[in-house]
Specification:
This protein is α+β, with helices and mostly antiparallel strands. Helices cover 21% and strands 28% of the residues.
Length: 550
């Protein structure tokens, strides 16, 4: 155990300092919290270290709590997962096909993500917003990203609406129901619902982001407290939550409630998805996993369970640049090495580990392991693959380019290297989530992400835009109640929304442009229509095809 502890601590050594934020780690094995440690500081100003009892905002990891309340109410017969949302929310538009509570739970509703809509409407998260204002923003949306059940696209709007539905069905707030039906029965005394950012929370770790030039800054958000993930919790409390998935004590008890929680979605065409009720069902190195990650402001979190091995890892961070999903899996690599398939642990451990490389895996498994085989892409192959690709299912754009002699991808508002693992296969290096890419002919690619179903992307032709002056004007969206301006200056097009700094529009193909890194909300994709009204189609990560007219 001492050797394993040393290996784990080495993984987190980068943050295990009195001048750095960090994380709390919990390792759960056979019903016991076998390893729990804090790395780094919960409060840099007051020099308070992180401990396993430190409280963090767990972001979307908290969606499973909202889903559990819905499942309990369904078991009580107070609602049905197949209820159309208008049954409980008559303010919502009547779409071409009904949206059900099941669609909301599975992220297959097609509803635009309200957090992206906030960015488009110039509503910064530094402000507070009442539930009614954000509900009105969602209810104004006449269009959908896709027909309900046609595709999967992660949407916080679905879980926001579930929180509203819970209150309307029961007359009780989601906060009170979580307290009554989850926290009290399980003894989770340090977990709370983050609906008041002015509340005093004992043991709370503050939230940070790296500062350009070195050091850290406070990364705050006053927006939240809704059904899409406003849970404050600790490693010690999430241990209690995790163990309930082996022997349920909630609702009426018994396994039926867990069966609801762990039943994955299916699309209209019968294609199975890995998403159940606030939980991802997946496999890692040949073993089944149940997990969910989260992120809000500077907080990042992951809870991953290996049910067949009765093993879980909880990683709660207060630094926006940390990647708890990757770190939690690296911890599992060490503990579960004899049970996992794959190429061993060498790629996962940082330099300087005493038993580094294949020798570590040999020591843990008694078997010889080899690192994954790598291939070298020629300059000609990289140039052939460089360009913009658009998702067939969602319309998302990927940009591949060559930087410092390496093929680099720009997606999820981040840049990362693509390393070849075969003649047509590549994997992301240091991406925010694990990604594999497979190229097909004609030039198209299949992208596999750990947090969503595979997507097909087709390469866009390089077509120059029309006269840039044709695109200039003020464009207004009735759904957002906001106007943006397109101007022509310095040889290019510029986008301005409200008081946000102007952003350059980069030509993609013909009438398609992209604006990178808009404020905190990431990139926007813009497509101009050549019609009499001068329509502009604007898309963000989770809010597609909003119509602006000139």
């Amino acid at each position: 155990m001492a050797d394993i502890a040393a290996m784990i601590d080495q993984l987190f050594a980068e943050w295990d300092r009195p001048d750095s934020p960090g994380c709390a780690l919990g390792v759960i094995q056979e019903g016991q919290l076998v390893y729990a440690r804090g790395y780094g500081m919960a409060d840099l100003e007051r020099e308070v270290p992180i401990t396993p009892a430190s409280v963090f905002d767990i972001g979307s990891t908290g969606k499973q709590f909202t889903a559990m309340i819905i499942a309990i109410l369904a078991d009580q017969g107070r609602l049905s997962l197949d209820d159309p949302i208008q049954q409980h929310l008559p303010e919502m538009p009547d779409y071409e096909q009904p949206i059900t509570l099941r669609h909301l739970l599975h992220h297959t509703s097609g509803l635009r993500d309200y957090t992206d809509l906030m960015g488009l409407a110039d509503m910064p998260t530094e402000n507070t917003y009442p539930e009614e204002q954000l509900f009105d923003l969602i209810a104004r949306q006449q269009g959908l990203n896709f027909r309900p059940g046609q595709a999967y696209l992660y949407s916080n709007s679905g879980y926001f609406l579930l929180g509203v539905i819970v209150r309307r069905v029961t007359g009780t707030s989601l906060l009170e129901l979580i307290q009554e039906h989850i926290l009290q029965p399980l003894g989770m005394r340090h977990t709370s619902f983050n609906d008041d950012y002015g509340q005093v929370v004992k043991g709370r770790a503050l939230s940070y982001a790296p500062r350009e030039g070195g050091g850290y800054r406070n990364e705050l958000s006053l927006c939240g407290g809704f059904g899409d993930g406003p849970i404050l919790s600790s490693v010690e409390d999430l241990f209690l939550w995790d163990q309930n998935f082996y022997r349920n004590r909630l609702g009426g008890g018994g396994p039926e409630l867990l069966r609801h929680m762990l039943t994955p979605a299916r699309l209209n065409n019968g294609q199975p998805l890995g998403y159940a009720l606030g939980l991802w069902l997946d496999r890692y190195r040949g073993r089944a996993t149940v997990s969910h990650g989260g992120g809000w402001a500077g907080y990042r979190s992951e809870l991953v369970r290996f049910p067949e091995q009765s093993f879980s890892v909880v990683c709660l961070a207060n630094l926006s640049s940390m990647a708890p999903t990757r770190l939690a899996r690296q911890v599992a690599d060490i503990y579960l090495a004899p049970h996992l398939e794959g190429a061993g642990l060498a790629p996962h451990l940082p330099p300087g580990t005493p038993t580094e490389g294949a020798g570590l895996a040999d020591a843990l498994t008694g078997e010889e392991t080899r690192p994954p085989q790598s291939f070298v892409l020629t300059r000609q192959e990289m140039e052939r693959r460089a360009g913009f690709y658009r998702s067939v299912e969602t319309g998302h754009l990927w940009e591949l380019s060559i930087r410092e002699g390496k093929l680099t991808a720009r997606a999820f508002d981040d840049s990362f290297e693509l390393e070849a693992t075969g003649p047509t296969r590549l994997r992301a290096v240091d991406a925010p989530v694990e990604v594999e890419v497979e190229f097909r002919e004609p030039l198209s690619m299949r992208v596999e992400r750990e947090d969503s179903p595979p997507e097909w992307y087709r390469k866009l032709e390089t077509i120059p835009p029309a006269s840039l002056a044709d695109y200039v004007g003020d464009y207004t969206s009735a759904e957002l109640k906001v106007t943006c301006s397109i101007t022509h200056a310095e040889g290019g097009l510029w986008l301005r929304r409200g008081y946000a700094p102007r952003q350059a529009l980069k030509p993609v193909s013909g009438d398609i442009f992209i604006a990178r890194g808009l404020h905190e909300w990431g990139s926007l994709e813009l497509e101009f229509a050549r019609d009499e009204r001068g329509t502009l189609d604007v898309s963000a990560e989770g809010a597609r095809h909003l119509r602006f007219t000139r």
